[in-house]
Write a structure and sequence with these properties.
alpha+beta, Spore Coat Polysaccharide Biosynthesis Protein SpsA, Chain A, seven-stranded mixed β-sheet, four-stranded antiparallel β-sheet, 5 helices, 16 strands, 19% helix
């Protein structure tokens, strides 16, 4: 059931995800979940057993594609709030500090979930799947593998290559060749759908930031970027916190198409990994 005051944007029934990419132009119902920018939504619901889970829902402008997934969170007893900002790292940090501050409330937060506005979990029980993987593997940080918005199958899940700016991004072909849920010392994960155990002090020592640099390589000037998710992963590693990745939860990453993570597709490997 739609929540009062909200209008949801959904993928029309019958969209074909079989090849990992679906063109959504004309197939997206003209419905949007809109909120005034810079206003947080808070829906108080029952605690999930001995745990209090809070979900941060960052967006650029209050528009999001995943109203049904948010409804599933409410049914699972998860408290949600939304933050809208044009500055990517800042909106993520605002979600994080909301969870930090709620650790000291009458019902202290034990776990924090991040769900980006353009990530659509496709199963109705997606949060139960994620929660089960998180606990069975004794994770502190668990990220869902999500393809980036290109047609070559690259994801933002990566392994260090020795080049800070160009780790080896895993393709959906490689993700499907690996275990459903796994970790590695040199793993870098994304924040699009990520669950974090908030009961340890390390969560007070990290933040999201995007690092940019311009430098010269072999006589040519290049612009480099370390995105906030890889920087976050590196902070976790420096604090002794392992990060994990899973493909248990099927998702679509939505733009002018929908890129999915439940089948192998795209290139066999990252063609630019570690290049100078």
């Amino acid at each position: 059931m739609a929540m009062p005051g909200y209008v949801y944007r959904v993928i029309a029934p019958g969209s074909n995800f079989a090849n990992g990419v679906v063109n959504t132009s004309g197939s997206i119902a003209k419905r949007f979940l809109r909120k005034e920018a810079h206003v947080a939504i808070r829906v108080m619901v029952k605690s999930a057993g001995d745990h209090k889970i809070i979900a941060g829902l960052p967006s650029y402008d209050g528009q999001r594609w995943n109203g049904s997934a948010i409804s599933a969170l409410h049914r699972s007893g998860v408290d949600t709030f939304e933050e809208s900002r044009s500055l990517l790292a800042n909106v993520f940090n605002r979600c994080w500090v909301e969870a930090l501050n709620r650790r000291k409330s009458a019902f202290p937060v034990t776990h924090f979930l991040m769900l980006h506005a353009d990530i659509i979990p496709t199963a109705t029980d997606w949060f139960e799947q994620l929660w089960r993987e998180f606990n069975e593997n004794k994770c502190k940080v668990l990220s869902v593998a999500v393809p980036i918005k290109t047609d070559v199958g690259l994801t933002s899940t990566a392994l260090e290559s020795g080049n800070l700016w160009r780790p080896r991004r895993l393709t959906m072909t490689e993700i499907l060749d690996r275990p459903v849920t796994w970790t590695a010392p040199d793993l870098l994960v994304n924040t699009g759908l990520m669950l974090v155990d908030f009961r340890e002090p390390w969560v007070e020592r990290v933040c999201f930031t995007i690092r940019d640099e311009i430098h010269e390589e072999n006589g040519t000037w290049v612009a480099e970027v370390e995105p906030e998710d890889w920087h976050f992963s590196r902070q976790c590693r420096s604090l002794g916190v392992p990060v994990w990745v899973t493909r248990r939860v099927a998702v679509a990453h939505v733009g002018n198409k929908a890129w999915t993570n439940d089948v192998a597709w795209g290139l066999p490997s990252d063609p630019t990994a570690g290049e100078p």
